[in-house]
Amino acid sequence: MAEMTNMTEMAANEHVGRLDQQVALITGASSGIGLAIARAFLAEGAHLVVVARRQEVLQALAAEAAALGRSCAVVAGDVRNEETAEQAVQVATAQFGRLDLLINNAGVGIYKNLAQTSSEDYDTMMDTNMRSTFLFTRHVVPVLLQRGAGTIINVASMAGVMGFPGEAVYCATKFAQVGFTQALDRELRPHGIKVGVVCPGGVKTEFAIGTGRTAEGVAASGMLEADDVARAVLLMATQAAGSRIIEIRMRPMVEPLAGRDPE
Questions:
Q1: What's the pTM value of the predicted model, to 2 decimals?
Q2: Active site residues
Q3: Per-residue exposure over 180-214, b if at least 16 CB sit within 10 Å of its own CB, e if not
């Protein structure tokens, strides 16, 4: 009988995900990499707070979560606004009583030569990519400091570690995210909080379609899949307490030995 009980317990433990009962806040969760991360986290047992402007897509994701026995709170709003960040953190603490992971994934790319890049283009990219990263991190950090634990993961780009022509401002926003990550790693690690950045090359999503990419070009490319990036984020999020990954750089296997792979 004791042996049978042990076998039952072992079988049950096999179904416990690596993020079981943890709560993750994910920005830009309605499509592409963000949606892939959300689904990967749900499969590992996490509960979610998801943020994006398209409420109907987020509600569909919440229905997926419910079918898996998970909870998914929806915050529809513009990540560039501080009120959205404040609301998301309040929802997490009120509904779940905790917050373990922040994934700053929301982003936009407008690929143009500098002379064709407007100040509006600059503001759109800087506010969506870097300002949102600052705002959500700024409001999540006090919650993690109270717990003395937690993980912050920023989804940047290979354009955050090297420059590409036609992407000067986009690269500036991504370099900013990488530098922000490196500084916060040193600031928050003494308090038990991990901070890391994932830097993928081009990914097959709707990102930058119409603002530098075409749907046909993306479909025909050998770029990374959103699920590839989600697995890297999951790897970073599931490190043992005494281990951390500071940066992951990702490239597709078809990257040419010389020349440029689009970001």
A1: 0.89
A2: 170
A3: bbeebbeebeeeebbbbbbbbbbbbbebbeeebbe
